[in-house]
Amino acid sequence: MLWGAGRDHAVGNEAKEPAVKKFINDPADVVAEALAGLAAAHPELRVDVTERYVARASAPRPGKVALVSGGGSGHEPLHGGFVGPGMLDAACPGEVFTSPVPDQILAATKAVDGGAGVVHIVKNYTGDVMNFQLAAELAADEGITVETVLVDDDVAVENSTWTAGRRGTGATLLVEKIAGALAEEGAKLGEVAAVGREVNAASASFAYALTACTTPAAGRPGFDLPDDEIEVGVGIHGEPGRRREKLRPARELVRSAVDALLDAKPLNPGDRTLVLVNGLGATPLLEQYLVFGEVATVLAERGLEISRRLVGNYVTSLDMAGLSITVARLTDEMIRLWDAPVRTPGLRWGV
Amino acid sequence: MDTTHLDVALAVAWLRAAAASVTAETDQLTRLDAAIGDGDHGVNLARGFTAVAATLDGGGFTAVGDVFVRAGATLIAKVGGASGPLYGTAFRAVGKALPPGAASADLADLATALHAGLDAVRKLGGAEPGDKTIVDAFRPALDAFEEAVAGGAALPEAAASAARAAGEGARATAPLTARKGRASYLGERSAGHQDPGATSTWLIFQALADVTAP
Predict the structure, then answer these.
(1) Would residue A108 count as lying in a domain?
(2) Which of B101, B99, B60, B92 is nearest to B74 (CA)?
(3) A6 — contact with chain B (CB < 8 Å)?
(4) Is residue A326 part of a domain?
(5) Does chain A have fewer CB atoms within 10 Å around its N or its C terminus?
(6) In 3D, which of A102, A84, A124 has the Cα closest to residue A235?
(7) B residues 140..179 contacting A (CB < 8 A)
(8) One domain for residues A190 and A212
(9) Does a structural domain hold residue A1?
(10) CA distances (Å), A155 to each of A50, A260, A278, in order?
(11) For this structure, is A9 an active site residue?
(12) CA distance B74 to A278
């Protein structure tokens, strides 16, 4: 009586699915223990396990605009794996799929503020937006100027009037890389934030899931999916997508995804693009490259040039099998900043 | 027990009862959230309210409003997600709207403070009634509380009335399509599932009814 509809039936899954095996100790300790491991693996980073942030060991750099991002854990290498020269100054990992808390974001912001202001890169999820907003207010109280860049590239969310709005997904990496490169050159706060917003506006992403993912706390998949069905338009938190469809050949799925991307953010023949094919955690690179090839074919048909490309697991959803496709329209300046040196655990070139 | 006032001891007892209830119902909240969100509402709220109970153990409160301000700050610091800021801001607003420094609040003060709490949630989250959120349990609970107080009810009766209304409001979220928060990405697929946030709001009002029950 106390519990209404929804208790016993769900898109989700009850105890019938077998438990998923994981390399963990106590589920409650996963984030802290992973941070300790990150610290051991990357002495060039300063990992504060108590305050829960990852910063460059050399931070703060006086006069440099600092970039801070963060979000739930489970998306690795995002965000902690993108801390380093040419990209973020600090990242705040929350609990698995749960945004960080304001105190944590404030601690990271103070740790890397070099006096030139701090850019918060925030994926558009209700919790992330609220916690970063509270943190920015606390930072302002301490005399730190914060500009927020909201990332909302996921075009699977069509109706932003009756939802929390488009989600931040694959384009987060692009924003962090390109804005990070500009900050490294000594640009001012407003300029760094502006290029971040420009990259977000120029980017569109769409994702498919073949399986649910399993959080360490739950131990079982978040939803169950028949053998011949896929979730279409998923985010990166193991939530179900907009709809289910029958599994189709990759070339058809890619064509549908590219249609959705170009419907939402039209491109013109001759436009130069960056294409990111991003694995969600459990999809082999073999399949990711196959999909990249299909994307290249479809974009070539439309007269679009792929100027920069990236394939791999960058913005993940634990052990979800699936992938996202991001297409961004590039300017000369974005290409220059994309090519600039970067040295982080998750992204590294030119150094 | 004084049934016309909420004092420091009763406020602490309420929040401890809420912590016990949220902890006991963690799996159910998680199950509701797994259906239309990401399945962590129970775990996150239990972590937050356990921290609230621990910070209240330190005691030393002389003003009833301070109990709620401390609880709210703790929830903001410990929960994360959307529910941390929303519940945290609500409790802080309740505490700040109670008469400053007063050791206890009468029922009119409490109704005003709960109103401030609801306003804070709506301002931060932007939710309207019917969006399938905390507001869908909080608003009917407040309406019922105010109506009971206006009719001359004492605290136990007003709290029981509020808890009943919150429960009904939570159950009534089941057929709704979510328009805020993570469940909104599901569109019409969110219908048919009771909202976890509205459900935890009901647990919190039920905790007040339980600790004031004669």
Answers:
(1) yes
(2) B92
(3) yes
(4) yes
(5) N
(6) A124
(7) 167, 170-171, 173-175, 177, 179
(8) no
(9) no
(10) 37, 7, 15
(11) no
(12) 37
Residues 6+ apart with CB under 8 A from A110: A139, A142, A144
A203-209 β-sheet, strand order: A243-246, A229-232, A203-209, A322-329, A272-279, A305-312
CA distance A70 to chain B (A): 12
Q: Which of A171, A201, A231 is the last residue of a domain?
A: A201
Residues A193 and A253 in one domain: no
Domain stops at, among A156, A172, A201: A201
A344 is a domain residue: no
**Could you read off the pLDDT of B121-141 as tens digits, one per residue?**
999 998 999 999 999 999 999
B39 close to A (CB below 8 A): yes
> Model confidence over A27-64: pLDDT tens digits?
989 999 999 999 999 999 999 999 999 999 999 999 99
Question: Containing domain of residue B92, as a range?
Answer: 5-212
CB contact under 8 A, B193 and A94: no
A143 and A275 part of one domain: no
Q: Which residues contact A256 (CB under 8 A, 6 or more apart)?
A: none
Name the catalytic one among A42, A79, A120, A237.
Answer: A237
Query: How close A139 gets to chain B, by Cα (Å)?
Result: 15
Same domain (yes/no): A273, A194 = no
Number of domains forming the structure of chain B: 1
User: Between B196-212 and B8-24, two packed helices, what is the crossing angle to 10 degrees?
Assistant: 130
Q: Cβ–Cβ of A6/B44 closer than 8 Å?
A: no
Q: How many domains does chain A have?
A: 2
Given a cut of 90, whether residue B109 has pLDDT beyond it is: yes
Please say if the pLDDT value at position A243 is more than 90: no
> Position of tokens 């399509």?
B177
| Chain-chain contact of B82 with A237 (C-beta, under 8 angstroms) | no
In this structure, the answer to whether residues A253 and A322 fall within a common structural domain is yes
Same domain, A217 and A322: yes
Partner residue facing B184 (CB), from A6, A7, A162: A162
The confidence score (pLDDT) of residue A195 equals: 98
pLDDT tens digits, one per residue of B27-60:
999 889 888 887 788 989 999 999 999 999 877 9
Same domain, A310 and A267: yes
Does A322 reach chain B within 8 Å, measured CB to CB? no
State the smallest CA–CA distance between residue B105 and chain A in angstroms.
Answer: 29
Q: Where are the beta strands (DSSP E) in chain B?
A: 5-7, 104-106
Q: Which residues of A fall within a CB distance of 8 Å from B181?
A: 126, 164
CATH number of the CATH domain containing B49: 1.25.40.340
| Whether A36 and A103 share a structural domain | yes
B contact test, residue of A123, A163, A214 with most B CBs within 10 A: A163
Question: To probe the interface with B, which of A2, A9, A50 has the most B CB atoms within 10 Å?
Answer: A2
The range of the structural domain enclosing residue A259 comes to 203-330
CATH of residue A292: 3.30.1180.20
Mean pLDDT, residues A197-210 taken together? 97
Least confident of A167-181, A238-252, B93-107, B195-209: A238-252
